[in-house]
Amino acid sequence: MATTSAGILLYRLDDEGGVSVLVAHMGGPYWAAKEDAAWSIPKGEYDEDEPVLEAARREFREELGVDPPEVDYAELGTFAYSSGKRVTVFIADGADFTASDFTFGEFDLEWPPRSGTTRSFPEVDRVEWMPVDDARTRLVKGQRPALDKLIELLREVS
């Protein structure tokens, strides 16, 4: 069965009508020196018994160490990676969300490989608001269609 994840993509509009999104650079030694395809929507796996939006909110909190904003969320869609993994993305206007005071969740990894030493690394090592065009190359490939869908949706409502 394919892995299922849920995430929150916050967006904000600037005075000229540009769109920025809040994305996170993946942590750990593999991603440390990478920029392109090394960023992600704050997201994570969930159990099918858990409501998907609740899972997305929980994962946002676990990865970033702060609660997602108390705003209305809309389901943007479910996007499939080439690996078969699927991520359901929720969007919300994050104009009033301050991207600071994060306490990133951690994961354990044997590092260096085959050393027998286990170290803890942050799941995410930084979070930034960035214009959609910049995010398009920085996000992992499987999440890029969410940006297109977001822009399409924002055009429909404006």
Automatic annotation (TrEMBL):
Pfam families: NUDIX. Residues 1-152 form the Nudix hydrolase domain. It comes from the Bacteria. One of its GO terms (molecular function) is bis(5'-nucleosyl)-tetraphosphatase (asymmetrical) activity. GO terms for biological process: AMP biosynthetic process; ATP biosynthetic process. Keywords: Hydrolase. This is NUDIX family NTP pyrophosphohydrolase. It comes from Microbacterium invictum. The lineage of its organism: Bacteria, Bacillati, Actinomycetota, Actinomycetes, Micrococcales.
